[in-house]
What we know:
Elements: E1 3-7, H1 12-23, E2 27-32, H2 35-49, E3 53-57, H3 63-74, E4 82-85, H4 100-128, E5 131-136, H5 146-166, E6 171-176, H6 185-189, H7 204-216, E7 221-222, H8 226-235, H9 240-250
Parallel strand pairs: 1-2, 1-4, 2-3, 4-5, 5-6, 6-7
Helix pairs in contact: 1-7, 3-4, 4-5
Amino acid sequence: MTTVLITGASSGLGAAFARGFAAKGCDLILVARDKDRLEAVAERLRAVRGVAVEVLPADLLDPAQCDAVAARLADPARPVDMLVNNAGFGLPAPFPYSPVEDEERMLELLVRVPLRLTHAAVPGMRERRRGAVLNVSSVAGLLPTGTYGAAKAWLTAFSESLRVDLAPYGVRVLAVVPGFTRTEFQERAGMDVSALRDALWLEPEAVVTRALRDLALGRPVSVTGWRYRVYAQAVRHLPRGVVARRMARTRRAPGGV
Length: 257
């Protein structure tokens, strides 16, 4: 039986990944801070899909709790076959208008935590010569879009590099690069997205379906929706200086400064 550990699994894309893997008969380990919400997700999956679901409440920004999740990933007696690094958050104001402590926390969760958990999971996968790591990045990482985009750009580059390194051992690595997705992410970040057209929004299930298909096909990056795939191709050929200036105009400081 395949066992999948998913971070940020209490809602949004994390919960959608849990449903997607459960539909394939995988056992799950769900990680998030909110134990009650995790238990609710777990109960539904056990009842509907009949899979085993382990709940592992953890604040991944707490070093001891992050270490506990890493230890679970590295436990040879209870092997984890797949890791989905999904936990994350954004900030409403551009750098340096957000408190530096918030910037550091975001960088920690988007960069150091996936690095730490992947480092814990990979040795066992490599030894067993099978496994997969899915890193949930963002189209924000394709362009100069502030510190959130910079962190996501790192995660995509990390995934593509790791994929090459682990291919000889039968371990797959996929960067999942969604656009605007209907989750709690924007609300929690305090972002005003009211001006976005409906056509730009993705459903979490669509992102997960595409990601699992791309993982099976051995692709390095998964982008959902034809608009975002065209966007991803186009930005590779745009002058970076022009793009940076245009993106800077969209990231106004509080008060319009």
